[in-house]
Amino acid sequence: MRGCHDADLTAWWLGRVPYREAWDLQHRLVLARREGVIGDQLLLLEHEPVLTLGRRGDPAHVRAGREELAARGIEVIQIERGGDATYHGPGQLTAYPIIGLGERQLGVRPFVRALEEALSATCAAIGVAAGPVEDQPGCWCGGRRKIGAIGIRVERGISYHGVALNVSVRLSDFGLIDACGMAAVESTSIDRELGRVAEPSTESVARAAAELAPALGRALGVPILGSLPPDAAPPVERRRLEAMLAVPSALLVGAR
Predict the structure, then answer these.
(1) Of 16, 45, 69, 100, whose CB has the highest number of CB atoms within 10 Å?
(2) Which domains does the chain have, with CATH numbers?
(3) Is 123 noted as a catalytic residue in this protein?
(4) CA 43 to CA 15: how far, in whole Å?
(5) Catalytic one among 123, 139, 141, 180?
(6) The pTM is what?
């Protein structure tokens, strides 16, 4: 079955997915991974506009008022990952690695470093110089412009949530929050760093996804399985993913 190879990481390009739908999918995958009925997975997608707060996030770091958010159809969701306030939206690549860190004997800090390495390598492959900054998780350009964010959760040795890379995202939307709880953070994107002016596009996110998956595989030292853009069709990938989860569903009923 696809996704059940112990040493592999299977990538899925899902296109644009509403946040709550992807959040539920992560929980289902974590449960299946914990029970040992699937292998490690990597979800690659973008979201409709949404604000998320980490488990200890401060609602005061959401600058926009309720009326403005309601008028734009933007929900604020408190979730279980680390970190503070984050914006997700079109033109931003979001990657959710559901990985058995315990089975791989991989600590949280080395895992975060691997995520940072993958973000940096993805930017480099597209022509942007970026990298980590000491004591500031994520990926930065020039040491002060944030292009990629990291916020993970590990439960019983299984990771979920993950990283967000600004590709062609509308940067003005980051004004809705104090990014990562820091008012002075300047957000940037691949398009901005390359001097391009364009509307957010799923196509640009797909190109970045095709770079990030193998970059993460290299950083972790594991082979990547699955289809990546431009070969992957999100509707087909979603059906295959649901089919994979449906097979062990009877086994998981008693584990809930």
Answers:
(1) 45
(2) 9-253 (3.30.930.10)
(3) no
(4) 10
(5) 180
(6) 0.91
Joined tokens for residue 57: 């996030």
Residue written as tokens 């958010």? Answer: 69
CA angle 239, 241, 244 (to 5 degrees): 110
Amino acid of residue 88: H
Q: C-alpha 60: how far from its chain's center? A: 24
What tokens were used for 123? 């930017």
Q: Tokens 């004004």 — which residue?
A: 175
